[in-house]
Amino acid sequence: MKSWDNIAKIALSVNDGTKSALDLVNESLSRIEDAKEYNAIISITKERAIERAQLIDDGVKAGKNMGRLAGVPFIAKDNFLTFGSETTAASNILKGFNAPYQASAIEKLEAEGAICVAKANLDAFAHGASTENSDFMVTKNPHDKTRVPGGSSGGSASSVVLGLAPFSLGTDTGGSIRQPASFSGCVGLKPTYGLVSRSGVVAMASSLDCIGPMTKTVGEASLILDIMSGRDLLDSTTIEKDTLGYVSLDSDLKGKKIGLVKEYFDDSLNKDIKESIENLIIKLKAAGAEIVDISLPILPSALAVYYILCPAEVSSNLSRYDGQRFGYSFDKATDLKESYSESRARGFGKEAKRRIIIGTYVLSSGYYDAYYKKAQLVRTKIVKDFENAFKTVDFLLGPVAPTQAFKIGEKSNDPLAMYLSDVMTVAPNLAGIPSITIPIDMKNELPVAVQLMAAQKQDRSLLGAARKIEELS
Predict the structure, then answer these.
(1) Which of its termini does the chain have fewer beta carbons within 10 Å around, N or C?
(2) HSE-up of 39 (CA within 13 Å, CB side)?
(3) Contact between 449 and 182 (Cβ < 8 Å)
């Protein structure tokens, strides 16, 4: 499909009247219809999108500036609460749920004129690395329909690469923005924890969940972050945005020190990915960056820590889906106990049940100290090790995943193999640091990307360096 113009350029052309928001929305809806075979979209918000587009066009005719994203269509992962369609988190237990309010991130984007046109597919409740765990459909990789797009934000990543909308929103709890961005071939940003409000986003693991944009370019990701970021009274974990914002970036790498994470370059790393990164390193050196090897010995423990803490929080967050207040309810129950058990048994998919069981186990009496408490102690060690690393380097660089996009069905019956897809992305979530995926190459007709990391609250510097990597690629 034809690529969209740069997001800022689209908004400028709507504000000056040379483009119509309604035409842009109709174009996006047409592209979504034409790409149905990729299963990227769960639902569309056609009526509300057209209504909002008409309001924006009317505002422009009245001489008003309709915002930095005027008329720009976008797609939200279906765990964001939005008006105009159901919010299901790709789970049968939420089928039919219409949100009574919108996510704060959606509200901020709409305040600048953006228009949500559809909801993207995901692994149900964001539990997965392939978008095969959706209760509704399996999304296909935009470069090869036999392969996964990554997960859990696979629908969001695929949507951007297919050109269904200029940008999409994803959530990242252990790599769910960055890994599908790598597999599908777009930019995926996980900001510092708390920089974007989680209010109105279906919770997975609340101490790990982050919200970020998926775009064609780093500059576009910067603009979306600039609009979504900052304090929100509806989310007490939110932090102040950078006083300089995230649009004007310093991309000069001269004198900057980039650490290559030794633990990410072991024998599990695909040789094609390694070769692409080695070629990038040569270009980074030529651009004036100092490249050093750095070791974080705690990193091999990160995946184990993640798969104790994440399911523990999942089991707590998913307890609210009990068939009583909203979502699916087993209507043939004869008593309350049967209503609870049957609603959850029928509404939750296999992966959600697996994580609930693991999480409940590690939090249970007799096992809390052995697993959950110990994992929290190791998490503190991970945070400290990253803090120490950033005392000696400005950024950390490594692959996003050990392999390129794998075949649909290849790992679906092997949960451990699927969990290992997250081995290079979980640590930034545990440490609360910002991280971004930047596509750098194509190998075997599939994208290759790198992951760049920075210290907490250094999102602006991270984006500047990422833009330089984008220029060099």
Answers:
(1) N
(2) 21
(3) yes
* pLDDT value of position 326: 85
CA distances from 452 to 116, 162, 178, 293, 439 (A): 29, 24, 10, 14, 11
Closest CA to 120 of 207, 55, 219, 186: 186
Residues 52 and 74 sit within 8 Å (Cβ to Cβ): no
Known catalytic membership, residue 176: yes
Phi, psi of 59 (to 5 degrees): -65, -40
Determine the Cα–Cα distance for residues 395 and 47; give it in Å rounded to an integer: 45
Would the CA dihedral through 252, 254, 255, 259 be positive or negative? positive
Q: Domain range spanning residue 67?
A: 1-473
Q: Is 153 assigned a catalytic role?
A: no
- Tell me the β-bridge partners of 76: 119, 169
Q: Can the peptide bond before residue 152 be classed as cis, meaning omega within 30 degrees of 0?
A: yes
Total domain count, the chain: 1
Cα 224 to Cα 240: distance, rounded to the nearest angstrom: 16
Beta strands in 38-106 (DSSP E): 41-44, 73-77
DSSP string, 134-154: -SS-----SS-TTB---SSSH
User: What is the identity of the amino acid at 381?
Assistant: K
Q: Are strands 290-294 and 395-399 parallel, antiparallel or unpaired?
A: unpaired
Tell me the HSE value of 447 on the side-chain side, using a 13 A CA sphere. Answer: 30
Of 19, 20, 28, 77, which is the active-site residue? 77
- Decide if 152 is catalytic: yes
Percent of the chain exceeding pLDDT 70 equals 100
The tokens for 285 are: 């050196």
Across all residues in the chain, what is the average pLDDT? 97
CA 254 to chain centre: 30
DSSP class of 371: I
Catalytic residue (choose from 85, 134, 152, 421): 152
What band does 235 get if pLDDT is binned at 50, 70 and 90? very high
Cα(156)–Cα(151) distance, rounded to whole angstroms?
A: 9
For position 422, which CATH number holds?
3.90.1300.10
Closest CA to 255 of 473, 470, 471, 461: 461
Q: Under a CB-based contact definition with an 8 Å cutoff, are residues 128 and 121 in contact?
A: no
Whether the predicted pLDDT of 1 surpasses 80: no
Q: How far apart are CA 441 and CA 69, in angstroms?
A: 29
Q: How far, in Å, CA of 239 to CA of 466, rounded?
A: 22
CB atoms closer than 10 angstroms to residue 106: 23
Of 176, 197, 199, 315, the catalytic one is 176
Mean pLDDT, to the nearest integer, of 295-309?
A: 96
Q: Where are the beta strands (DSSP E) in 288-334?
A: 290-294
